[in-house]
Amino acid sequence: MFKFRTVVSIVSLVVLMACEGSEWNAPAASSMEIQSAAYVSPLPSSITLLTMVNESGDFGEHSGVLINASQQVLYDPAGTFRHSTSPNARDVNYGIHPAMVAYYKSYHARRGYYVVAQEVQVSAEVAELVFQRAVAQGETGKLRCAVSVSSVLNGLAMFDNIPTTYYPGKVMNTFAEIPDVTTTYVYEDDEGQNLGG
Question: What's the predicted TM-score (pTM) here?
């Protein structure tokens, strides 16, 4: 019994470390930088949960949310993703056009890890509310990506099944229960993270 608990504790620690992120010294983007980078998608309003999954055991290690609201943004709490053309402030990346979405997925997908994208269309009002909640959430501390992602989603009628949790895989599994979710997967075979420009 002791050995089982020890293994569970170690696995839990490894899972939580995946959201650890890095310390970034760059200042938050200014409102002018954010406004000039804004991308408005012509597609219907949507929320896409992005989960980075370890192939060894298929457990989630990091969560982010692509929010297609009045502008399309990427909420990446405690994440390491940065790109010179995507201003970042308080864990929200702006200027997230389709090529940047693909780049984000490619940044995370590599040998041993794949990306699960779960998209659901929502009303413009719900998308905007999720966007506002992500901005209000502020910068996320280490090991808390899933807590922040679940917090910006739960409490809304469509996402009320999502628990506040430290585990990205649990957020992913409960998100899958939402009606009309479209799920796609990204696999790559490179050795490490692609570097932002």
Answer: 0.83
